[in-house]
Amino acid sequence: MKWILPVSVILCLGSNSAMAEDIFGQWSRGDGNARVKIDQCGANICATNTWIKPGTPKEKTGDKLIMTISPASDGKYSGTAFDPQRDLTYKISVEVKGNNMTTKGCVLAGLLCKGVQWTRLD
């Protein structure tokens, strides 16, 4: 069974703007099929699909992932992400290194996990 984290990443970083600069912005998924904008949305951080390659199944522009995460170490975050389109909550980890980001989401108590590579666009 192949599945893709729909919108990517979501975090609740609090008010530390230095950390927020690491994750916020426009990102392109490694397979080239999606682009997201990660930004503050209320008390959370949202990753919103801004572009989806035509023919990409189960995703559309505007889909959103709502993240509640905390810093684990320099450039690394962990927590949960809620996908309202699928009514699923993922355990998520995020690692940002310069213009590269890796997200890993797990469902079913960590039994099914998927990692995704991202490149910063802005």
Shape summary: globular
- Tally the beta strands: 8
Task: Describe the largest sheet.
Answer: 8 strands, antiparallel, barrel
Order of helices and strands: HEEEEEEEE
Beta-sheet strand percentage?
over 45%
Q: Classify the secondary structure makeup into a structural class.
A: mainly beta
The residue fraction in helices comes out at under 10%
Q: Taking all residues together, what is the mean pLDDT?
A: 82
> Could you give the order of strands across the largest sheet?
1-2-3-4-5-6-7-8
Terminal Cα separation, in Å? 33 Å
Structural key phrases:
122 residues, mainly beta, disordered N terminus
Topology (elements, then pairings):
Blueprint lengths: L16 H7 L1 E5 L4 E8 L2 E9 L11 E10 L2 E8 L4 E10 L2 E8 L4 E9 L2
Brief sketch in words of this structure:
By secondary structure, this protein is mainly β.
Write up this protein.
About 5% of the residues lie in helices and about 55% in strands. The longest helix has 7 residues, at about 15-25. β5 (about 75-85) and β6 (about 90-95) form a beta hairpin. The chain is mainly beta and about 120 residues long. The radius of gyration is 13 Å and the shape is globular. It is built from one helix and eight strands; from the N terminus they run αββββββββ.
